[in-house]
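Researcher: Structure for this, please.
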Amino acid sequence: MKTPLLLLTATALLAPALFAAEDPIPRDGRKLSLRNEIQLAIDKGLRFLKTQQKDDGSWSDADPNHPALTALPLVAFQREPSGRYLKEQPEFMRKGYAFIRTKAQPDGGIYTKGLSNYNTSTALMALLNSGDPKDEPMLKAAKDFIVSQQAKGLTDPSLDGGISYGPTGTSRQHPDLDNHLVGLEALRAYQAARKNVEGEGKQLNWQAAIEFINRCQNLPATNKEKWASGDEQNKGGFVYFPGDSKAGEMKLPDGRLALRSYGSMSYAGLLSFIYADVKKDDQRVVAALDWLKKNYTLKENPGMERAGLFYYYHLMTKALAAADVKTLETPKGKVDWASELALKLINTQAGDGSWVNDTARWMEKDPVLVTTYCVLSLEIIFHRL
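Model: Predicted structure, token format:
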């Protein structure tokens, strides 16, 4: 079956080797200067990250038990535009890979004490490009572990089809849209890197996965959950999991309560649909983009103020690039989102090459994590200019 353009674009975001080039050619010659500034910001960010690696090969002071916090910087080095780190596989990267391997568990996951799906999914994406054939059994086991986290037959059927934090380290083990997205991204990355064929190992129920995404969207036409709202402020956007929004709820003019759609999860929902091969003209994708256009801003994570702001930027970049959106028609006019976000990040980078959020929620006071989000975003934008 022919792979749709939308999925090809999304897959390219997951395969750094597809981008590697000695001298990438700019799509728009008028933006060569901005591309040069982006490259400088990427270089500064990567230099900062390199100085933060621990002696054992890990990154981050926030929680060294989570291999994801080591995997994410490794992916940032892998996706550096010239591809030099992929080719050279320097010693510091090999140390990072070695640290991640120590976290492999008998059940196939790659984690220590919790967030087993997030850690496994992120570690899988980093190790796919380690260049070591000995990693293959571990990668296949990790892929099967992620698939095994897909929910089925839960007491609350609205959660079926989704992917959760996993079986360890959290009191809430049911699915949510963020974990669902990370799991789908890792599975698509595995397929892209290893040209995985249907029938090899455990396989995700993709239709059930799509139905879970549906039930996270404020779109009554396709989400039959009672809470789904078609009001002007929320229609098309997404919540954290069916019936729950981290942005809370709001009272509508007719007295009904609506769960608030919010920025980061609305980009997560759009990207999840893309990874699940939902077409660009599908009403769910169209509605998601409509909400994102109406609520476009770089000042905050819409609905969450500054909480999760840099993760919001990261998801925005991945989702709009995967959807091949060049400009957004916002209430304030047409926006070249990639250039605008690049300039925002360049202008807020600290002298040592780092970024950090002044709001701590979701670990965004960790400069390693936030710098990694920013470098990954700039690397994607670099290839769109």
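Researcher: Any notable elements?
Model: The chain has one domain: 5-382. The two ends are 31 Å apart (CA to CA).
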